[in-house]
Amino acid sequence: MTTERSRSDPAMTVTPGTTQPAQAPDHDEAVVTNVYHVLARGHKGRILFHDAFDCQRYLRLLLAVKPLHSLRIYHFTLLPNHVHLLVDAHEYALAEAMATVNLGYSAYHQTRYGSKGRLWQGRSTTLLMSPTSDLLTSGRDLELNPIRAGLSSAPHAYPWTSYHVYAEGAINPLIDLNPDYVALAGTPQARRARYQQYLDGPAALVADPEPTPMTDARPSWPRGRPRIVALATGEVWLYDK
Fold first, then answer.
1. What percent of the chain has pLDDT over 70?
2. φ and ψ of 165, to 5 deg
3. Whole-angstrom distance, CA of residue 106 vs CA of residue 117
4. 87-110 confidence digits (pLDDT tens)
5. Which of 22, 23, 62, 134 has its CA 20 to 30 A from that of 70?
6. Element spanning 109, H or E
7. Residues ≥6 apart with Cβ < 8 Å to 118
8. Contact (Cβ atoms closer than 8 angstroms) between residue 135 and residue 74
């Protein structure tokens, strides 16, 4: 299933070098956005997220910059030493947003752990998706990364992906529903059922594996259903149903 991704959007854009959104363009200067696969890695495999609090902090930073840069975040996956996002955005706005998030998270990480040196492996990598690409397959592949990395035996057992929005109906203000997902069925219940079948299909684990193996230094990850994790950390808003 494919949808056209490039679009004219009158939403505000961000001027490079600033932290405030610029004025919306004139009608003859429409902003064209595209979908990008964003990959941000820890420097030399460095651990980014040690526990649930770290994951929550990073997601809250993303949520804070999202309206400032007119981002539409379709899918996310947080692994111990890297991040995957599927985002619809203007190229320059996306670069500005990721720089802000990564800088803010670096400051938090240094304060909490007393860490020194570089946390991130350079700038985030942004891979432009084809306008005719299947976003549902791309999103599914992102959400199956924890299984490929050996961190979980099933998607529902790993808290830090957008799987729980699409397959379980979890409410997460960070996520804008993937348009290919919306086209699956006419009701939320039917969409969730179709998406679960889609992830459980025989082709679900055939996608290319992670380009860089997981480091052996794996932190203790919260297990169980994400709503329980959210309650335990006091962050009910993220996964509350």
1. 69
2. -75, -45
3. 10
4. 999 989 999 999 999 999 999 999
5. 134
6. helix 91-113
7. 43, 46
8. yes
Please tell me the predicted confidence (pLDDT) of residue 203. 52
Residue showing tokens 């006091």: 234
DSSP state of 43: G
**Tokens representing 212?**
């860089």
Residue 211 confidence (pLDDT) above 90: no
Q: How far apart are CA 93 and CA 178, in angstroms?
A: 20
Whether the predicted pLDDT of 18 surpasses 70: no
Residue 217 is encoded by which pair of tokens?
């230094």
* CA distance linking residue 161 with residue 238, whole number of Å: 12
Report phi then psi at 36, rounded to 5: -125, 145
71 neighbors 168 (Cβ within 8 angstroms): no
Predicted model pTM: 0.73
Specify whether the CB–CB gap between 68 and 20 falls below 8 A.
Answer: yes
Q: Superfamily for 34-209+220-239?
A: Transposase IS200-like (3.30.70.1290)
As to burial, measured by CB atoms within 10 angstroms (0-12 exposed, 13-18 middle, 19+ buried), residue 136 is: buried
Q: Which pLDDT score, from 0 to 100, does residue 115 have? A: 84
Can you tell me the distance from the alpha carbon of 31 to that of 10, in angstroms, rounded to the nearest whole number?
A: 7
Six token digits for residue 77: 């996956």
